[in-house]
Each structure stands twice: as structure tokens, then as C-alpha cells.
Amino acid sequence: MTTAKVEQPARRASIGARRNPASQAAILAAARAVLAEEGYGGFSIDAVSRRAGAGKPTIYRWWKNKAELLIEVYAAEKARVKAAKTGNLAEDLALYTAALWDFWRDTPSGRTFRALIAEAQNDAAALDGLRDKFLPERLLDVRTLFAAAVSRGEIAADEVETRLALYVGFNWYYVLTDSLDEGRAAIPAAMRLVAAQLRS
Amino acid sequence: MTTAKVEQPARRASIGARRNPASQAAILAAARAVLAEEGYGGFSIDAVSRRAGAGKPTIYRWWKNKAELLIEVYAAEKARVKAAKTGNLAEDLALYTAALWDFWRDTPSGRTFRALIAEAQNDAAALDGLRDKFLPERLLDVRTLFAAAVSRGEIAADEVETRLALYVGFNWYYVLTDSLDEGRAAIPAAMRLVAAQLRS
DNA sequence: TCCATAACGAAACGTATCGTTTCGTTATGA
DNA sequence: TCATAACGAAACGATACGTTTCGTTATGGA
């Protein structure tokens, strides 16, 4: 045989004039699997459609572009990144970052994240979705850490956005170069800089 | 008319059993123009070929993938980023970064850079080229600034890679979200953090 | 109970890009 | 003189795009 036969999903007929949750789940699972196995390069709507045993119109009916599908795949990975809090910003960020990188490594989420950023360079609508919807939601936890540091007097409130940009960029650099392993040792020192006190 | 007719390039015949520099130049110029006008989404080998009046085999003969072409388009923008040096790392970095962002804004290089990072998520070979060839070359100038700071005793030599990662990530975050304008005001404070002294 | 409604998957549409191959033409350089 | 190799044009088969058509299914209000 020439092609590997992967789980052949059962055809799901319409269940009437409403969305079929089984199809939704099958499409998300197929998208997740394609990303895990092929990465962004193999992530096509056709591939997801075939893998899910779903019609393309069904995909396009519920997700208006690849970015929306990617965002939902990422969000479906319920396992939130959780890390202990030490009461020190640098340490809190280091613990959180290590947990985030584990999450990116142990699930298809790292590849999903990379795919989403790549897709945002393709399509202006995808970039808007990334900037205005996906990123703000994903940064809520980190913002909480910064807010706590502000209330402890560790950092100034008007420095949060700058420090956040440094923090996010640090993560993006390593995930986009597929270098999370090489960068791991740099996390603590980097977080000390992100949390550093500026001489006044 | 339905399609805008852009500069119709003259057909360049073979000049014998060697590379035709006129074709090379026409292809690079066409790639640059396509990126400037369409961005990564419209950057296809077919589009470049049509625009350059060149055959696709000629492109594939000299560049083995899109990433190589992107790298050469970026490198062809001779105008190196130049900034004065103040003898203070934070200020040197801020001046350099402002000049870099001007370069990204005033030339097609910002879009080229974004396209290269996106392409690296598509193709493993492109990621290798980005990590092992393109990035190291582009970071030479910044490394010089860090090296000078090390010799002045501002920062420790073994902290350079961490600070460099923070620096690069900061730039990537803003260019990839197409937010260079919004991020500009944050440059000085961010560079003070990248250059900050760590309490020992 | 009837029936307008809408979702379902299959298949096909036309267009675009991919990377490659074939072909006739051109000029080099030994 | 002539083997060599680059040139652009054109076409190849494969794949993906986003959309349309179609027969089927079951809902939920009249």
C-alpha cells in the first residue's frame, strides 16, 4: 500500500437543523492530529477535512479561516498552564514560563502556536484575530503576575506593557526558532531582567 | 481593464553557458516588489516569475526554496542599519533599534523579514537557514554593542546570550504583530531592562 | 402531523501554486 | 567547430483554495 490509513472516522449525517457536536469534535481532533504530525506545512483544510471525514463546507460554515480553527484547537487544550507563586516576580515568571514551555512541548500546542503566528503573516484578518483576541486572552495569567508585583511595589504600573512585550518576545523567539530546549537554561536570568528594578 | 499592467520586463535570452546577471537582478527586484505590494500572502514563485519575465526553472536553478530567495532579497537591501554609539549599552541599543525599525518601515525589509519567519514555520530547511545563516549574520552589529558593554564592565560576558534573546524577541514581537508604530515609545525602557545590572 | 428549515458529507467546480520536464534558442569557451 | 549550459515558454500532474450543487437527515414551530 502507498498511503498509511489513519483512523477511518464514521460518517456523521446531519442531526437536523442544528450544528452536529460530533462533527465539530471530529474536525478539531483532526486539525490537532494534522498539526501534531505535519506541522503548519501540512495543515490544509483539505487535509483536515479528509482526516475528519467531514465535508469542506462544514468546516467553512463554522470557521471562516484557518486562524479561527487554529485558535479553537489551541483553546481546546484545556490543561491551563499553572505554576506556583512565590511572591517574587522573577521567580513567578520563571516558574510560569517553564510550565508554558512544557505545555508547548508535551501537547501539539507549540506547533499550533507557531502555525497561528505564521498564518497571521499570510492573512490580515488572522493577524487581527491574533492581536485582538487570542493574545490578550493568553496573557491574562501573566498580567496577573505583573499586577501582583505592582501592588507589592516591585515594579511601576506604567512599566508593565514594556516588560510584557519583552516577556512575550522572549517566548516567541524560542518557540519560532524551535529552540525551546536550547533556551530553557536562560529562563531564570531572562526573567530577572524582565523583572529588574530600573535605577531612578 | 481588470488587471493592472506593471512594468513589462524585456525578455532576457541566454548569454551563454553562464548565469545571466540581468535575470538575477530582475528576479530579486520582482521578489522585492511583490513583497512590498502583496506581503507574504502574495509571495509565490509563480508571481515572482511572471513579474520578472523569467522562467520558473531559472528561479529554481539558483534558489532552492522561497527562504533562500527571501534571504537574498533582504541582504540586497544594502543600506545597513547604522546608529551612533554613546558608550552606554541601553542607549546604544535604543538608537540601533530605532534605526532598525526605520529600516523595516522605509523599505520592504520588514515584510521580507516577516515572510522569512513565516516561511520557516512551513519548511524545516527554511528554519535551519534562518537560525544558522540569516540570524547570526544579522546579529553581528548588536553583538558588537554587547561586546563593548562587556569590555566596559557594564554586563557579564556569560549574560550576553540571554540578553540577546530578550532583545531579538522584543523586535520580533512588534514586527510580527505589525505593531512597530505602537511599540516605538517602549524602546528606551525596554533597552534599559535588556541592559540592566542584575543584583548580585 | 406536516413541512420549512438548516446542517450533514460527497463530489465537482474553476483558479492558483507547487516543483518538474520538455523544448527551441542563445552564446560561451575549450 | 561544437559540447555545454543557461535562458524563457509552455505544459505537466498533484495539491489546495473557497464555493456550489445535490441528496439525505432530523429538528422544531405551525
Give the SSE layout:
2 copies of one chain form a homodimer.
Chain A: H1 21-38, H2 45-52, H3 56-62, H4 66-76, H5 89-106, H6 109-122, H7 124-138, H8 140-152, H9 160-176, H10 180-183, H11 187-194
Chain A binds a DNA duplex (30 and 30 nucleotides) through residues 11-20, 23, 44-47, 49, 53-58, 60-61.
List keywords for this structure.
homodimer, 200 residues, mainly alpha, 11 helices, 66% helix, elongated, disordered N terminus, DNA-binding
The largest chain-to-chain contact, stated as pair and per-chain residue counts, equals:
A-B, 42 and 43 residues
**Which percent range fits the helix content of chain A?**
55-70%
SS field, number of helical segments of chain A: 11
Average pLDDT rating of chain A: 94
Gross geometry of chain A: elongated
- Low-confidence parts of chain A lasting 5 or more residues at pLDDT below 50? 1-5
Report on the biggest sheet of chain A: none
Sketch the topology of chain A as an H/E string, one letter per element.
Answer: HHHHHHHHHHH
| Strand content bin of chain A | under 5%
Tell how many strands the DSSP assignment of chain A holds: 0
What is the terminal separation of chain A in angstroms? 70 Å
Oligomer: homodimer
SS-based class of chain A: mainly alpha
Radius of gyration of chain A: 20 Å
